[in-house]
Amino acid sequence: MVVSLIFVLILVVLLATFIGHNLGAEALVQHFWFFKQYDNVPVILLVFIAFGAGVALSLLCVLFARLRKADEERNAKNVTDKAKKAEEKAQKLAEKNAKLAEKEEKKLKKNKKAKEDDLNKTQEMSVSDLQSIQK
User: Fold this and answer.
1) How far apart are CA 62 and CA 55, in angstroms?
2) What is the pLDDT of residue 116?
3) Among residues 50, 49, 58, 51, which one has the least CA distance to residue 11?
4) Tens digit of pLDDT for each residue in 45-63?
5) Cα 63 to Cα 83: distance, rounded to the nearest angstrom
6) What secondary structure does DSSP assign to 58-110, as a single string?
């Protein structure tokens, strides 16, 4: 790809040189660069200036396109990173909620067991109280 690009550029420069020399060595009057008049300027010089300006503008367009693409990739990466972080937060929150639910269940079981024990003690005490009253 790079070799073919260099080959095409060399071909264009040689073609511009050949055309510039065949147009004539000098133009009598040239209007160039915002209506300024130049006398006896070689046409080949104007051809090379135009070629150089075209190359410079093309390189600027390529540079801006690469910068824009890099910005889009960076933004896409930031979005995916934020999404991953949000997923991780949600997962951690779910784990934390699961642990809290387990603790609550354990407390409920302990409370239920304690209530059953208290009920049994109360029943035993009431039975013993009834027996003592009967005596």
Assistant:
1) 11
2) 73
3) 51
4) 777 787 888 888 888 988 8
5) 30
6) HHHHHHHHHHHHHHHHHHHHHHHHHHHHHHHHHHHHHHHHHHHHHHHHHHHHH
Stretch 24-52: mean pLDDT: 66
pTM across the whole model: 0.40
* Distance (Å, whole) CA 13 – CA 19: 10
- 101-119: per-residue pLDDT in tens? 888 888 878 777 777 776 6
Q: How far apart are CA 75 and CA 64, in angstroms?
A: 16
Distance CA 41, CA 46 (A): 8
Q: How far apart are CA 67 and CA 132, in angstroms?
A: 96
Contact 16, 48 (CB under 8 A): yes
